[in-house]
């Protein structure tokens, strides 16, 4: 099973940016955490990060060509306004789980709305970097058509 993890803008600065909201673990360490969890679950994982909307869209298109089984995406700020990322997810029709480190529903009004979540099977938020592990576990059930 092949899963692509996509991280959007400013997530490369995890460990530096607003630690009180996003935690003190650095981006590289979070990537290591994701890779270790994937190995434990016997999932083939690829991690992609970009600060550029079009690059994220190209990567979603590439996931289709690469026959990726599932996408875990933290679109970061694009969550709240990128119809283009929503359209790309709908276009490739690959099971996708949206994840956020912070609880976006307990923050500013403009963060409560996700335009990308309706293209996803579900959303995990508010559990920090552990949300990525939760998403990988959930993805096994989704891809194998097990009851969720
Ligand atoms: C975020 C939440 C977004 O609102 C914000 O723009 C981010 C990170 C999160 O993981 O909590 O960059 O996606």
TrEMBL record:
DNA repair among keywords: no
EC number of this enzyme: 4.2.1.10
InterPro entries: DHquinase_II, DHquinase_II_CS, DHquinase_II_sf
EC top class, as a word: lyase
Keyword Metal-binding: no
Gene3D superfamilies registered for this protein in UniProt: Dehydroquinase, class II
Catalytic activity: 3-dehydroquinate = 3-dehydroshikimate + H2O
Any one Gene Ontology BP term: chorismate biosynthetic process
Site location (Transition state stabilizer): 17
Pathway: Metabolic intermediate biosynthesis; chorismate biosynthesis; chorismate from D-erythrose 4-phosphate and phosphoenolpyruvate: step 3/7
Molecular function GO labels: 3-dehydroquinate dehydratase activity
Domain of life per record: Bacteria
Active-site residues, as the UniProt record annotates them: 22 (proton acceptor), 100 (proton donor)
Keyword entries, A-Z: Amino-acid biosynthesis, Aromatic amino acid biosynthesis, Lyase
Protein residues bound to substrate: 74, 80, 87, 101-102, 111
HAMAP family, alphabetized: AroQ (MF_00169)
Summary of subunit composition and partner proteins: Homododecamer.
PANTHER family, per database record: CATABOLIC 3-DEHYDROQUINASE
Protein family according to the UniProt entry: Belongs to the type-II 3-dehydroquinase family.
Biological function: Catalyzes a trans-dehydration via an enolate intermediate.
UniProt-recorded name of the protein: 3-dehydroquinate dehydratase
Primary gene name: aroQ
